[in-house]
Amino acid sequence: MRARKFVAILACSGLSLWSAQVAVAQQDDSASAAELRAELEQLKLDYEQRLARLEARLAAMESAPAAPAPATGGSALSDKAFNPAISLILDGKYGHFSNAEGLRDLPGFQLGGESGSFNNGLILGESELNLQANVDDKFFAAATIAFESDGDESGAAVEEAYLQTLALPDGFAIKAGRFYSGIGYLNGIHSHGTGFADDPLPYRAFFNGRLADTGIQASWTAPTLLYAQFGVEALSGNSFPAAGAANSGVGTRTAFAKFGGDFNVSNSWLASLSYVDSNVSQRSSGGTAEESGIDPLFGGDSSSWIASLVWKWAPYGNPRDRNFRFTAEYLDRQEDGVLDLDGVTGTYSGDQSGYYLEGVYRFHPQWSAGLRYDTLDADNRVFGLGTPTVLDDNRETPKRLSAMVDFWNSEFSILRLQYNHDDSSLNRDRQWVLQYIMSMGAHGGHSF
Amino acid sequence: MRSLLLALVPLLTLASVPVHAAVEIFACEPEWAALADEIGGDKVSTFSATTAFQDAHFIQARPSLLARVRRADLVFCTGANLEIGWLPVLLRQAANAAVAPGSNGFLDASQSVRLLDVPTSADRAEGDIHPNGNPHFQLDPRNLPHIAATLTERLQRLDSGNAAYYDERLAAFNARWTKALANWSTKAENLAGMQVIVHHSAWVYLEDWLGIREVGQMEPKPGLPPTASHLAGLLDVVQTSDVKAFLRASYQNPKAASWLMDRTDIPDIVIPHTVGATDEASDLYAWFDDIINRLLEVNR
Q1: Are residue B174 and residue B219 in the same domain, yes or no?
Q2: Do A103 and A52 fall into the same domain?
Q3: Is residue A257 part of a domain?
C-alpha cells in the first residue's frame, strides 16, 4: 500500500522528480535498482488497473440504452446569462386614518427619522430595485435601491449594497458593505416581504424599521443536523439607534445565534437570540416629534436583546395551497446617558421593551389572512431638564391590533387590505390601508 | 531524499481520507436520492430534500435543509429552474463552498439530458414557465443512464479511492436498466396514441417516451391554479376526443380532477412522478413498473 502510494506520488509530481529519483537510484547499489524495478512494475500495474476501469466504463456506456441526444438544453449560456438578476418591486399604499397626521409618536420613545408611520391618502411605498449576482467563484454581491416619494419630494436611497463570500472554508462567511443586520427575524426581511403593510411597533421604536448600517459581518454555520448559525457584526453606528458614528466609526456591535429544524414533515421552526450594543451620540427624534414634544439630544449607551421564534406549518411540506406562519419577537432595550436640551443637560435611563405576535394563514392558493398584536412598554427616568420631553412615558403602553387579508393573483402580484386598531399614540386611531406589491423580473427564493 | 518522500506518505494518506466516512449526498428529489444509492451503494449516504408528496417547485428554504446543505459533499438536483425558488437560497446561506454551482460538489442533472418544451420567449403572462425547458425529465427512463454516468464521474472525482467501485455499480445499473427498459417498452406498446388530460405540464417526457397524447391541462397556464371556466372548457375537449384518464401527481390537489370526473365517466389516476409517490413505486424499477401498470389499467 505504501509503495503504491509512493508510486502514485511519483506519477503525479511528474518527470523531473522521476528522473531525480532515477539518478538517486543509479548511485545506489543493485538492491535499490531491484526496488526501483519493483516500483516500475507497480506503476505498470496501477495503469493497467486504471485502463481496466476505463474499459469497464466504456463497456457500460455502450450497453446503455439509446437515449435522447445529451446536453443541448440545460442552461444555454449567452452574454445575457451573465447579467445580474434584476428585480423591481413596486409597493404602493392608500391610507385612511381617523386621526390627523403628526400624532403618531410613541409615548416614551425617541423615534428614528422614517419610523414607518405613513399618512392619509395615496403614497408610494418603498419601491425597490434589486440587483444581485455571483461576482465570481468567491463573491456574491447585491444592491437594493429604494425609491420613495413623499409629497413633492422623491428620492432614491441605498437600502443595501454588500458583498458576501462564497468560498470560505468550514462554514464561515463574511458580509461587507451596507446590509440589513442579521439580528432578530424580521430585521432580515424587506418590508414588501412581510405579512403586513407596516412594521410592528417594537421594530419601529427600536430600529427605525430595520437595523441597516454599513459594516462587516462574520458568521459561522455549524456542521450539525440541527441548524445553528452564529454571527457578529461591527457597524458604523450611523444608523438608528446609534445615530452619529461614534468610536472611530464603529458605533454599533451585534451578535446573534440562530437555531432551527423540523418538528416533522409539516412543521418547522427557527429561533434566535440577538444582542445589539450602540454608542449613541447626539441622537434626536428625526423630525417625528417636532409637533408633539420637546426633543433633547441623547448621548450614551443603548443595548438591546431580541428573542425571536418562528413556527411554520405546511401540510406535508407543501406551503403552496395552505400554510400557517406564527412569528413572535420580544425586544428589550436599556439606554443610559446624558440629555442635552439647548445647553441644559440632564440624565436619562431608559428601560424599554416590546413584543409582537403575528399569525398569517394561507387558506387558499390565492388568499391569506393574518392577525397581529404589538405593544411597547417604556420605563424612563429623566432628571435635570426641568421640562417634559418626548421621553416621558406617561405610564402609557402603546399597543395595536391589526388584521389583514391579501389576494395573490400569482406569487408576483399581491393586493392587501389591512385594518389597525391603534392605541399606540395618545388618541386611538382607526387605520385602513390598501396596499399593492408587484414584483417584476428575477424572483429569487425567500429565506425561511 | 527518499526517506523524506517516504515520510510524506503517511501524511498524504491522512490528508486524502475524507472527513466523513461516506460521501454525503443532498438530493433535491427522491428519484435522484434513489439513483445516488444505486450508484453509490454503501460508499454514500443520501438525503432527499423533498418527499414524493411535495411539489418541488414550491419548497421553503427551511433551516433543516440549510443544515443538510452545510454538511453535503454533493448537491444533486434536477436543475432547469425547477428548484429556483429555494435551492439558490440554500446554497447561498449554507456557507458550504464545496457544493457551490460550478464546483465538483454541485450536479445539475438537466445538463446531461435534452430538454423538451424550451420556450421561445419568457413572459410571465404565460404562467410559471421554465426558460430552459420542461424540468420533469425524470419521467423518461431513457434519461437516467446519462445522468447516472455524470453522477459516477462526480463521485469518482469526490471519492477517487472508490473509483472502481462506482464503475462496477454503474455497469451493473446500466445492464439491469437496459433489460428493464426493453421490458417496459414491450409492455407499454398499446399505450401509444392513448389520450390524456393532465393537471400540470409535468408529463411531457413520459408522453414522449410512450407516445401518449396530451389533449389538455387542468391548469389554465403552467403553475396557475385550475379555474372553473377553464375546467368547463376541458369538458368540450372530452366531448371531441377519446380521453382515457385524468393524470395528476401525488402532490397535486385532487379537486380539479374530481370535478371533471364527476361530469364525465373518465377516471382520475395518480401516476407516481418519483420514487415513493405510490406504495408500489418503492424503487427506481418498481416506479416505472407502476407507471405502466397504472396506465394500462385505464387504457382499455
Answers
A1: no
A2: no
A3: yes
Same domain, B20 and B163: yes
- Whether B165 and B238 map to the same domain: the answer is no
Does residue B2 belong to any structural domain of this protein?
no
Is the same domain home to B136 and B238? no
Interface test with B, best of A1, A45, A46, A75 (most B CBs within 10 A): A75
Considering CB atoms only, which of A6, A20, A225 is closest to B9? A6
- The answer to whether A7 touches A13, Cβ cutoff 8 Å, is no
Write out chain A residues lying below 8 Å of B8, CB-based.
Answer: 9
- CA of B194 vs chain A CAs: smallest distance (Å): 22
Instruction: Please tell me whether residues A9 and A124 are part of one structural domain.
Output: no
Q: Are strands B106-108 and A399-410 parallel, antiparallel or unpaired?
A: unpaired
- Neighbour order of strands in the sheet with B44-48: B44-48, B23-27, B74-77, B106-108
Chain A residue closest in CA terms to B96: A171
With CA atoms as reference, the chain A residue closest to B181 would be A65
A380 φ/ψ angles, rounded to the nearest 5 degrees: -105, 145
Is there a contact between B112 and A224 if contact means CB atoms under 8 Å apart? no
Per-residue pLDDT of chain B (300 residues; tens, 9 = 90+): 455 444 544 444 444 444 457 999 999 999 999 999 999 999 999 999 999 999 999 999 999 999 999 999 999 999 999 999 999 999 999 999 999 988 999 999 999 999 998 887 777 777 777 888 999 999 999 999 999 999 999 999 999 999 999 999 999 999 999 999 999 999 999 999 999 999 999 999 999 999 999 999 999 988 888 889 999 999 999 999 999 999 999 888 889 999 999 999 899 999 999 999 999 999 999 999 999 999 999 987
* Nearest residue in chain A measured CA to CA from B50: A317
Task: Name the residue type at position A412.
Answer: F
Picking from B146, B181, B216, the residue at the C-terminal end of a domain is B181
Is A69 within a domain? no
Cβ separation B112–A71 shorter than 8 A: yes
Q: Identify the CA nearest to A203 among candidates A329, A335, A371.
A: A329
Cβ B149–A64 below 8 Å, yes or no? yes
Cα dihedral across residues A33, A34, A39, A44: positive or negative? positive
Complex prediction ipTM = 0.86
Query: Are B64 and A2 in contact (CB < 8 Å)?
Result: no
Q: Residue B283 belongs to a domain with what CATH number? A: 3.40.50.1980
Closest to A261 in 3D by CA, of A272, A274, A248, A247: A272
Here the cell at position B39 is: 450508484
Residue A199: give its domain's CATH number. Answer: 2.40.160.10
Residues B41 and B161 in one domain: yes
